[in-house]
UniProtKB/TrEMBL annotation:
Gene3D superfamilies: 1.20.5.110. InterPro entries: Synaptobrevin-like, V_SNARE_CC, VAMP4. Keywords: Coiled coil, Membrane, Receptor, Transmembrane, Transmembrane helix. It comes from Basidiobolus ranarum. The chain crosses the membrane at residues 52-71. This is Vesicle membrane receptor protein (V-SNARE). Residues 1-46 form the V-SNARE coiled-coil homology domain.
Amino acid sequence: MQENVNRVMERGEDLDALGNKAADLESGALQFSQRANHFREYMWCKNDKLKLLSSAILLLVILAIIIPIVITKHSTR
């Protein structure tokens, strides 16, 4: 009888340890999710800035090509 009581107590301790591990995993998962969302937003902003900069450079190159052509055509008339 004493052996059965000891086994039940050991199982209870094991269940407590398992519950603690589950709680730790849950808090770790929440922290990971928050960091992943923050990183996703950071990369989204960085990507948008890169697109804006690329568009501005492309526009400047196009203007650098078109403006001299237009000026030379007007000056030859």
